[in-house]
Amino acid sequence: MFKSLFEAAQNSTFKSPFTSANCQAASAPAPAPALLPSANDGAARQLSPNHNFAAAAAAVQGDSCEFGSNHYFVLCGLGGIISCGTTHTMVVPLDLVKCRLQVDPAKYKSVVNGFRVSLAEEGVRGLAKGWAPTFIGYSMQGLCKFGLYEVFKVMYANAIGEENAFLYRTGLYLAASASAEFFADIALAPMEAAKVKIQTTPGFAKTLREALPKMTAQEGISAFYKGLVPLWMRQIPYTMMKFACFERTLELLYKYVVPKPRADCSKGEQLIVTFAAGYIAGVFCAIVSHPADTVVSKLNQAKGASALDVAKQLGWAGLWGGLMPRIVMIGTLTAAQWFIYDAVKVFLRMPRPPPPEMPESLKKKLGVTGEQ
């Protein structure tokens, strides 16, 4: 199925996010496919619809691959692995305390108290519990999240056409990110279940190798996927906000805040803007996905309970337990993920298109003369 998605995206007539160069005589202007850019910005390129010319232009400008090619999508997936796997692993101690606040608020009364109690009971090494399933699970999730987001964005833009892709780009970001996260959570669910079990059930297991056979023996394969639906409820809204808010915030920052045009910014300056847009998006991500996150934490601790049972037991106030540490964690984590993802693109010399511009055909229809 994924192979067909890649092929469809690669063959899309709208796969280039750039206005095409007019390589013909003035009397025969070339069409201008102007699809939305990738999630990160960079120097603009002008490509013709001709595939060979596009590849040549990429080579001349030093890009390691052509935008929308299979090679490009694979590298996006690699960037997702590096971005998500490393950042989630770095915040394991905070995630551990957050999960314990959610499932046992009587014992862990605050973030500071949670760290104090955890250190007293298990020492410094105890704060790293769950690092292995975190690294493995979120690396797999990052592969699907970022890689498939780029694929679905190209596919959906092809389906609605370049003008609608610009006019309804927020909806396009939301649809592409939701589709990507659907598959990403299937990859994440087993490791997320093991992580929460290790972190929140005292004496259950200290390592992933110890936890997996115990979980299988107690509940079978369902132990790893019983939290999938609430995981979708948590991660899909989170990812929709993460990508759509980031993309639109990036546009606004370059339009109203950054004191010079994006094309005049150095790569370092562009990465700083990426980090700022990522942090703003992360704050909103944490808020919209927190109730479901609380249910996931409690569900993976409670044997035989359903998501609805857990939600009723927690009540409205209980669903928001641990929100502040999660805002700090997710805000920092989301900003770091976008920064690393964009830095990987720079390092690998991948195409980094600018924010979207209104297609010439739409400008003519609307009578627009200036830049939008």
TrEMBL record:
GO molecular function terms attached to this record: phosphate transmembrane transporter activity
Annotated Solcar repeat ranges: 71-155, 168-252, 269-347
Cellular compartment(s): Mitochondrion inner membrane
One Pfam family it belongs to: Mito_carr
Gene3D superfamilies the UniProt entry points to: Mitochondrial carrier domain
Family statement: Belongs to the mitochondrial carrier (TC 2.A.29) family.
Role according to the record: Transport of phosphate groups from the cytosol to the mitochondrial matrix.
Name listed for the protein in its UniProt record: Phosphate carrier protein, mitochondrial
Phylogenetic classification of the source organism: Eukaryota, Metazoa, Ecdysozoa, Arthropoda, Hexapoda
